[in-house]
Automatic annotation (TrEMBL):
The active site is at K183 (proton acceptor), E190 (proton donor). Pathway: Carbohydrate degradation; pentose phosphate pathway; D-ribulose 5-phosphate from D-glucose 6-phosphate (oxidative stage): step 3/3. It comes from the Bacteria. This is 6-phosphogluconate dehydrogenase, decarboxylating. Belongs to the 6-phosphogluconate dehydrogenase family. Substrate binds at N103, S129, G130, G131, H186, N187, Y191, K261, R288, R442, H448. Its EC number is 1.1.1.44. GO terms for molecular function: NADP binding; phosphogluconate dehydrogenase (decarboxylating) activity. It catalyses: 6-phospho-D-gluconate + NADP(+) = D-ribulose 5-phosphate + CO2 + NADPH.
Length: 467
């Protein structure tokens, strides 16, 4: 029998997703935490209004829906999800499914899926990307759950998803928390790419003294080639916007203090938990944290302000540096997906994740199409950056990245994400590094043992005073 859909939470994302679902010909039961929000939503729904059945509460909605039911939650991540489950659960029957379409922490999703599955209920953790516009016109969606449950809701989700050359940007990427994990890593890459673009902007604006319009023109130019991406496009648009009252570039009126709801941070936390380093994403999270400490920066400015030499920038060199960094941050993100897939036994199809990200989501870009092709074709689990498709490009761009980072350092312009990318590339291209000394230190103070290059086994150094 056909699934009946209900959606709870008519905020920005919930409203937009509801209209999208209705437009694709599905009837939808709707409810919100505040009953009046449902009335307001229905009043605004215009010609799509007939598709909706409004309810006063989540419990009312679930009770009055026929089975089998799929209840989509679009409530803030955290306690609100648990509260919604508690409210709906008494009225649910085997065969019904709850779909959490918020930005949940995947550990929570795993816990909730296990709890509900014990009671015969199904749970899907679904990452949704694309902001309000994406939700309305076609988001990218990453689903975690069982095959059977996914297949039950698949036609509806494929109908509302973004389309990349005829393929819907939605799929099941693994069981339980896999979907929310993939969305978390998407956001980590989003943080790094946003910071990267901001670093390029900083060098041009504060270093070279270019105008916002000149920078917007360059970003528009870049957006016609290998750096084509949604974030590049909107960065140009933001820089081109002027305040209607003062006529100033609007960006100059925005407080330089970035917010974060947590997903980028989770990416870094999870990477470190799994013994993987996503240094570009860690750097981007750190940069947001520093940006938010405005008082600290004011104090630092008074204490350490450096003479800021004017930067002489070659846009073609900067372009290569940005491309190299973008490749590295995606590569680190995919390395993390791979590590998590092993750790949690998700058997994740990494190429499929890249394919889902080619349209609808915030990090959509031409690079992701190349990444999808590279991952489809690779026969070894090498880091993405070392795939032939990217290794040549990186080798070509590496001198430019070094030149830009050097220029930035000399001019006291912070470029933490570019520096992290360069640091990773330099470390990963040293066949013999400096961890020999680290191992010597560890053995000296803790008798941890060392491996030798000249014979097999575990040894201790002939230290004279190894206490
Ligand atoms: C998306 C975005 C979105 C993001 C919010 C807030 O893919 O549509 O990633 O889901 O979570 O825009 O992000 P921050 O507040 O953490 O920047």
């Amino acid at each position: 029998s056909t699934t009946h859909f209900g959606l709870y939470g008519l905020g920005t994302m919930g409203s937009a997703l509801s209209l999208n679902i209705a437009e694709k010909g599905y009837g939808l039961h709707v409810a919100s935490f505040v009953a009046e929000d449902t009335d307001k939503f229905l009043a605004r729904a215009d010609c799509l209004g007939d598709a909706f059945t409004g309810h006063r509460s989540l419990a009312d909605m679930v009770k009055s829906m026929p089975s089998p039911r799929a209840i989509i939650l679009l409530v803030p991540a955290g306690q609100a999800v648990d509260d919604s489950i508690t409210e709906a659960q008494p009225y649910l029957q085997p065969g019904d499914v709850i779909i959490d379409a918020g930005n949940a922490n995947f550990h929570d999703t795993r816990r909730r899926a296990t709890m509900l599955e014990k009671q015969g209920l199904a749970y899907l953790g679904m990452g949704v990307s694309g902001g309000e516009h994406g939700a309305r016109t076609g988001p990218a969606m990453m689903v975690g759950g069982t095959e059977a449950v996914w297949n039950g809701v698949r036609p509806m989700l494929e109908a509302i998803a973004a389309d990349f050359q005829g393929e819907p940007c939605v799929d099941r990427v693994g069981p339980d928390g896999a979907g929310h994990f993939v969305k978390t890593v998407h956001n980590g890459i989003e943080y790094a790419d946003m910071q990267l673009i901001a670093e390029a902007y900083g060098l041009m604006r504060h270093g070279a003294g270019w105008s916002t319009t000149q920078i917007a023109d360059l970003f528009d130019d870049w957006n016609k080639g290998v750096l084509k991406s949604y974030l590049m496009e909107i960065s140009a648009t933001v820089l081109r916007t002027h305040d209607p009252d003062s006529g100033q570039p609007f960006v100059d009126l925005i407080v330089d203090s970035a917010g974060q709801k947590g997903t980028g941070r989770w990416t870094a936390i999870e990477a470190l938990t799994q013994g993987v380093s996503v240094s570009t994403i860690e750097a981007a999270v750190g940069a947001r944290v520093w940006s938010a400490d405005r008082n600290g920066r004011a104090t630092g400015a008074a204490l350490f302000a450096q003479p800021r030499a004017k930067v002489d920038l070659d846009p073609a060199v900067l372009h290569q540096a940005v491309l190299a960094t973008r490749i590295v941050c995606h590569s680190q993100g995919f390395d993390l997906l791979q590590a998590a897939s092993c750790e949690f036994d998700w058997a994740m199809d990494l190429a499929r994740c890249a394919e889902i990200w080619r349209a609808g989501c915030i990090i959509r870009s031409d690079l992701l199409d190349e990444i999808a092709t590279a991952l489809r074709g690779r026969d070894r689990d090498d880091t993405l950056a070392f795939c032939p498709e990217f290794a040549d490009e990186l080798a070509l761009c590496l001198p430019a990245l070094r030149q830009i980072v050097t220029t930035a350092i000399a001019a006291a312009q912070p470029v933490p994400v570019m520096m992290a990318a360069l640091g990773w590339l330099d470390a990963m291209s040293q066949a013999r590094g400096t961890a020999d000394l680290i191992q010597g230190q560890r053995d000296f103070f803790g008798r941890h043992g060392v491996a030798r290059v000249d014979k097999p086994g575990v040894f201790h150094g002939p230290w004279s005073d190894g206490t």
